[in-house]
Specification:
Blueprint lengths: L5 E5 L5 E6 H7 L3 E9 L5 E6 L10 E2 L2 E4 L6 H13 L8 E6 L8 E9 L11 E7 L1 H10 L7 H19 L1
Parallel strand pairs: 3-8
Antiparallel strand pairs: 1-2, 3-4, 3-6, 4-5, 4-9, 7-8
Length: 175
């Protein structure tokens, strides 16, 4: 029998104040940590995943290329590298570049989130317990789809994407 994951519980400043099993953290809406990774290819397309129908939260919705919780005692960087291997089956993802940090809120399920980006062409070996399928999509097509059919996406995906796209455009304007 698989042991339930243990997550660090964090305060409003993302400082660890305790730990609890996954089910308790989610049931009580406690603040915790997650990592999201966006994989791009050489054409500039982003890989998105359709979450497995077996997932306890947001089953059968589209999400980041890879995403997952930071386990108790683990840091964001280690969790991000682990999730790319566990979910997409790639060990040679190259460097994961941190591109954003988002404070816990309702849209993230009370998760503080670090967002990473990497480039990889595939092939991918999605874990069927985690992922139903993956697909490449252009950023413009993704944005149009999220606008037209927001219910087809896990809540954190459009939230994180839009925050970081705004940040990118602001950065571009300042340069």
């Amino acid at each position: 029998m698989k042991t339930e994951e243990l997550f660090d519980i964090v305060d409003e400043n993302d400082e660890v104040i305790g730990s609890a099993p996954r089910s308790e953290v989610h049931a009580k809406g406690l603040r915790h940590r997650a990592a999201h990774i966006w994989v791009f290819n050489s054409k500039g397309e982003v890989l998105i995943q359709l979450r497995s129908p077996q997932k306890d939260r947001h089953p059968s919705t589209w999400d980041s290329s890879a995403a997952g919780h930071v386990d108790s005692g683990e840091n964001y960087d280690t969790a991000a590298a682990r999730e790319v291997i566990e979910e997409l089956g790639i060990r040679d993802a190259g460097p994961l570049r941190e591109i954003g940090y988002v404070r816990a809120c309702n849209s993230t399920g009370q998760e503080f989130v670090k967002v990473y980006q990497t480039t990889h062409e595939g092939p991918f070996r999605p874990c069927p317990v985690e992922i139903d399928r993956v697909r490449w999509i252009s950023p413009g097509e993704l944005e149009k789809w999220m606008e037209e059919k927001p219910g087809e996406f896990a809540p954190a995906l459009p939230y994180l994407w839009n925050l970081l796209r705004i940040k990118d455009s602001e950065t571009t304007q300042l340069d």
